[in-house]
Amino acid sequence: MSVLVCGGAGYIGSHCVYKLIELGQKVVVVDNLQTGNSKAIHKDAIFYKGDIRDLDFLNKVFTEQEIDSVIHFAANSLVGISMSEPLSYFDNNVYGTEMLLRAMSQNDIKKIVFSSTAAVYGEPKSVPILETDETNPTNPYGETKLAMEKMMKWVDIAHGIKFVSLRYFNVAGAHESGYIGEAHSPETHLIPLVLEVPLGKREKVLIFGDDYETKDGTCIRDYIHVMDLIEAHLLALEYLEKGNKSDIFNLGNGMGFSVKEIIHASERVTGQKIKNEIAPRRLGDPAILVASSEKAKNILSWRPKYTDINDIISSAWKFHKTHENGFN
Ligand code: UDP
Predict the structure, then answer these.
(1) How far apart are CA 117 and CA 229, in angstroms?
(2) Binding pocket residue ranges, ligand 1, CB within 6 Å
(3) Known catalytic residue: 141?
(4) What pLDDT score does 251 carry?
(5) How far is the CA of 190 from the centre of ligand 1 (A)?
(6) % of the chain at pLDDT higher than 90
(7) Pfam families from the entry (predicted)?
(8) CB-based contacts of 236, cutoff 8 Å, min separation 6
(9) Using one digit for the tens of pLDDT, what is the confidence trace for 298-307?
(10) Atom of ligand 1 at shortest distance to CA of 170?
């Protein structure tokens, strides 16, 4: 039996595919290559290029392959763009997930691990954030992910499709081999953008706001290494295979770093001064997002290995030094 990885050519999906294959799993990848790159797909995975909004396409994949479970990464994921293009986020994320769940239901596939986000919480009332805290997204990206989670809850009740939703905080770093890593085009995430300065690809990094209610005025985020994140997906699959109930888990390190602290840590890792400049706030950004991942630790027995921000940035740096132009 195979695991279907939707979005397996993207940053996080490609790391999941590598890990599953390293563990001897058969993997089928579906990706429309909208933001993913075919060069990031492991050569031993079976790849179908297509869109999850296309029900006939999904039914063809489920008919041709013996699929037992789904890991779903295929979604638009940028806070800023979601503010200016909300409808494209609802279309790809919500409608895409509707079609995927429809295809799963029609083909009797009963397990899905889902990529959710800290953005479902919005501006938290207290930190660290617990899974039981109020969800009140401040941007359409978070709103679509929350809608997808709610869709899965009702589909479980109606059709018995069990899900684990993993609410990621800020994912960073790269596979140990350095073959794959974070390479978006255009890049919008903080750590790869900061590293573009020592690579000589960018003169300076912009700090989006230094007037937040935080220790140095810049936004605080909880950075989690991509391989630790993937480990949680494998544990979530095992959890579902054991017949456990659908559930939601935060995934983060439980430690917050400000934008300025990330720049300073990157200076230490690269040994170079990183020029930066204060710019206006970015729309839709909450001041502080830090996870409590105690539930994932207790129920899934998840144990993150990369707890030091320097190690996370070093691992990203290893990839970027050898892939200055991403996969091109
Ligand atoms: N950020 C920044 N400059 C950049 C990119 C990001 O100051 O060029 C800030 C952003 O406002 C946020 C944090 O860095 O507070 C992390 O942003 P990112 O886009 O990496 O992830 P997000 O938190 O949006 O998922």
Answers:
(1) 12
(2) 79, 170, 188-190, 193, 205-208, 219, 221, 259, 282, 285
(3) yes
(4) 98
(5) 5
(6) 94
(7) Epimerase
(8) 113, 164, 166, 249, 300
(9) 999 999 999 9
(10) 25
